[in-house]
Amino acid sequence: MKKGHYLLVAVLGLATFGVMEWPHIREHWLMAKEVEVDAMTSASRPTAQAILERALQNKAQDQLLVVVGWVTEILPDEQRDVVSYQRFVVRLTNRKPLLIEHNLQIAPRVEGLKTGSELLIRGRYFWNEQGGVLRQTHHDPEQKQPDGWIRFKHKNYG
Questions:
Q1: What top-level branch of life does the organism fall under (predicted)?
Q2: Regarding beta strands 61-80 and 133-135, do their DSSP bridges make them parallel or antiparallel, or are they unpaired?
């Protein structure tokens, strides 16, 4: 075999087996495949990142978003009326913070969260002066809106 062929075999082997051996990389790749738009079939449709940036710039209210974020702060639960919310802050891929309010009356608590935990989250974005809040990260009991969810360690909470 020529030197170039060995290099090609080595790169293909690492690409194939490396992804399988590192589950967190494979999981991140699979999560990204779920939220990104296929450029070959929908070139005119915006990506999840573009939708997020537009929502931030336009100070959007009630905008459905899917985001990837890393937990930077875990806040105490908040009680409003009879509803309890699990609250934490994530740093998004654009480095901006986003408050997550997860309704514990409708969805189970996201167990095992700690600083640095990576999450894939779908919910409704509401702009505020601090950068915004993502709510409705749960199924819609009335089935009037698309369901929200939080995905953490191969489990959906929503």
A1: Bacteria
A2: unpaired
What does the pLDDT read at residue 48?
Answer: 66
Domain locations in the chain as residue ranges: 3-35, 48-157
Q: Is 147 exposed, middle or buried (0-12, 13-18, 19+ CB in 10 A)?
A: middle
Question: What does the DSSP 8-state code read for residue 60?
Answer: -
Name beta bridge partners: 150. 121, 157
Q: How far apart are CA 65 and CA 147, in angstroms?
A: 11
Measure the CA–CA gap between 30 and 50, rounded to whole angstroms. 20
- The β-bridge partners of 90 are 71, 98
Q: What is the mean pLDDT of residues 71-86?
A: 95
CATH for 48-157, options being 2.60.120.10, 2.40.50.140, 3.30.390.50, 2.30.110.10: 2.40.50.140
Q: Is the dihedral of CA 18, 24, 27, 28 positive or negative?
A: negative
Which of 106, 35, 30 minimizes the C-alpha distance to 67?
A: 35
Q: Read off the pLDDT band of 63 (50, 70, 90).
A: confident
Two tokens, residue 5? 């062929």
State the amino acid at position 9 in one-letter form.
V
Residue 76 has which token pair? 């105490």
| Pairing outcome for strands 133-135 and 97-103 | parallel
